[in-house]
Write a structure and sequence with these properties.
Elements lengths: L2 H15 L12 H11 L4 H14 L3 H5 L3 H4 L10 H16 L6 H5 L6 H12 L8 H11 L8 H14 L5 H14 L18 H5 L16 E10 L5 E5 L10 E2 L2 E2 L2 H10 L6 E4 L3 E4 L4 E10 L13 E4 L9 H17 L1
Parallel strand pairs: 1-7
Antiparallel strand pairs: 1-4, 2-3, 2-8, 5-7, 6-7
Helix pairs in contact: 1-11, 2-3, 2-8, 8-11, 9-11
The protein binds iron/sulfur cluster (SF4).
Iron/sulfur cluster binds next to helix 9 and helix 12.
């Protein structure tokens, strides 16, 4: 499909099916387009409508917003979230007010706080009828599927590719209608889940649809690679087959729960035993396991040490104890599992 055919299909669809009665589509001014674009960032149209109406009623012009105190503005954003958007809007309104001219170039708009390339493109296209591509979330989704682009859109190469596609497809004429149309197509037809491909005007040339990969696109953000911490968990067993446990500090991971002494290395665990005058009568290293927290993986290697020395070293009250099988204690799941496994193995070996 040529860019011209693509534009025609989108514009024809918009003429019959597109939304043309949204409050910011009436009485279009740069200020109203700008306000709507900022409100629509990360927020759905239905949520934005009442906020837009209340805001525009209170601050009908850019000048009225610029001369207001920020404390007057913020209540009109209350509940919409991402409050930096309101602060940036207000700050930029004051700058424009001082300049006494609404910026009408990409560079000038992008120099203002909170206006990125896509918002600037939308303002220029819709309010000034100057052809500029946009790439908001809805447009990204349409283009990604239409062209079958794989890879996370936050990746620089993918972003570059999408901007190039958007630029190629944006018409010089009727850029205002086209910009509204493609945003609307993404919001109402090519939706995140269950897109309505059967009524989509570009379905016959959609790569994702023809390849049956619509649900896989856009490629989700890759999961963060978590750092890995390595620890040795000491299973110190005394002559009575009890295991030594320590209470963890009240805050942090497993705060206030009973746990095994943890060390950076096998040597550190052995040194600790010797510092408590506990001879190491036998020792065994068990296979390493992984427990994943939200911000790191914990790879722990249990070290079983049998000591037959007297275990009457001074213990801080309620901070450590010798654990008997079946004793009811607050234990983190991996520790509980480890103790149970160890006790089971020991019973089998008896
Ligand atoms: S055919 Fe479906 S997946 Fe492709 S652009 Fe249209 S709605 Fe989106």
């Amino acid at each position: 499909m040529t860019p011209a055919a693509f534009q025609q299909s989108i514009l024809a669809w918009f003429a019959c099916r597109g939304r043309k009665d949204l409050p910011w589509q009436q009485n279009t001014t740069p200020y109203r387009v700008w306000l709507s674009e900022i409100m629509l960032q990360q927020t759905q149209v239905t949520t934005v409508i009442p906020y837009f109406q209340a805001f525009i009623e209170k601050f009908p012009t850019l000048d009225s917003l610029a001369v207001a105190h920020i404390d007057e503005v913020l209540p009109y954003w209350s509940g919409l979230g991402y409050y930096a958007r309101a602060r940036n809007l207000h700050k930029s309104a004051q700058i424009i007010y001082q300049q006494q001219r609404f910026p009408d170039t990409l560079e000038e708009l992008m120099a203002l706080s909170g206006i990125g390339q896509s918002t600037a493109g939308a303002i220029l296209s819709i309010a000034f009828h100057k052809s500029h591509p946009i790439l908001d979330g809805n447009v990204k989704r349409v283009l990604t599927r239409y062209k079958g682009i794989t890879g996370w859109s936050g990746d620089t190469q993918v972003t570059k590719q999408l901007w190039a596609i958007s630029a190629e497809l944006t018409p010089i004429e009727r850029c205002a209608d086209y910009t509204q149309a493609i945003m609307d197509l993404g919001a109402t037809v090519c939706t995140r889940s269950k897109p309505s491909c059967t009524v989509c005007p570009i379905a016959s040339h959609c790569v994702a649809l023809s390849m049956g990969i619509v649900a896989q696109l856009p490629t989700p953000k890759p999961k963060k690679t978590l750092p890995v911490k390595q620890r040795v968990f000491l299973l110190l067993r005394n002559y009575d087959q009890q295991l030594f446990l320590e209470k963890r500090p009240p805050t942090g991971i497993w705060g206030g729960l009973w746990s095994l002494p943890e060390f950076d290395s096998i040597e550190a665990a052995q040194d600790w035993c010797l510092s408590k005058n506990m001879a190491i009568n036998s020792q065994q290293l068990l296979p390493t396991s992984r427990h994943t927290f939200s911000h790191y993986h914990l790879d722990y290697t249990p070290l079983v040490i049998q000591t037959n020395s007297p275990t009457n070293f001074v213990m801080e009250a309620n901070q450590s104890l010798w654990y008997n099988a079946g004793q009811q204690l607050g234990l983190a799941a991996p520790i509980k599992q480890l103790l149970q496994q160890h006790i089971k193995t020991e019973n089998k070996n008896d």
